[in-house]
Amino acid sequence: MVNHHSVNTLKSRERTSVTTRIFVMVIVAVALLITCQLMAQENPSSSPLGAPTSPTAAPVLGAGTTAPAAPSGIPTDPLGIADAMGRPFTVAFILASVIGVWSVVERLVILRRRRVIPKAFVERFLMHLRAGRMDKNEAIAICHQNQSPMADVFMHGVRKWGRPSVEVEQAVLDGGERQVTQLKKGLRVLNGVSTLSPLIGLLGTVVGMIRSFNDIAIAGAMGQTQTLANGIALALLTTAVGLLIAIPAMAAYLYLAGRIDSIVMEMDRLGQELVNLISAEALRERAVVVAPKSELTQAATAQAARPRNPGPEK
Predict the structure, then answer these.
(1) 3-state percent helix, strand, coil for the chain, nearest multiple of 5
(2) Judging by beta carbons within 10 Å of its beta carbon (0-12, 13-18, 19+), is residue 272 exposed, middle or buried?
(3) 245 and 93 in contact (C-beta within 8 Å)?
(4) What would the pLDDT profile of 53-101 be if each residue is shown by its tens digit?
(5) CA–centroid distance for 120 within its chain
(6) Which terminus of the chain has fewer Cβ atoms in its 10 Å neighbourhood, N or C?
């Protein structure tokens, strides 16, 4: 009953965590969109590419002659970039950024070594097993009380207490696989962000080139760079923004994957040590080693208690 209750509790916690995560990401994305919209309304001077410039932008050079308006170029400020890419690509990149940052922060918190493998608990648990001061029921109770991933792996092995080493090792491996799955759960999201962001940028490149060729076909704007600037800016900016999101996401994914591998190796080493302490073969060897020691201790005690024969009187 205790095990079923703990499993149900963990499942309910996971559902609550996922729901909270999605709710927070939606709130952050909506807040970013509202902020960008308000900043764009407060700064109407940042006109999109290809928009006609004001008459005051062309200074008078001489009698009746004016200088041509300087080309606006590709924007470099955040609002100009968002305006040039358009709302669909801006929303997609903002969502990808929020999801990526959230996944990295969440995994950094989850993959703390002292949370996955509590050093004090592991050392104390194995020390009591080596000294023989803990039985099966006490070990299960301690593991259930700790509730760390390493304690869950130990619990799977302790349930096979006194069984052959093959069965104990298989139980430890089963528990370890479940914990590894939980540790790697957030990495799939991060891998998806690093994979989909360049594809979204590539889609923006294709859309931008289609827009440029469409402008050429309709307006005959082969020599008018200002008319083609919208499509070219969309093509370049979406690719750049997609790569700017994907490169840090991939770097974070590789770092977190390496941390998980090191944690799994440590868990495997500790699980093997548990097998060598509670398997039937280990208990049998310990009993064989303890028995001669106890016999020698009894013999020494009897020898010390035996009265010595007095020597001959002179």
Answers:
(1) 80, 0, 20
(2) middle
(3) yes
(4) 444 444 444 444 444 444 456 666 778 777 778 788 888 999 999 999 9
(5) 25
(6) C
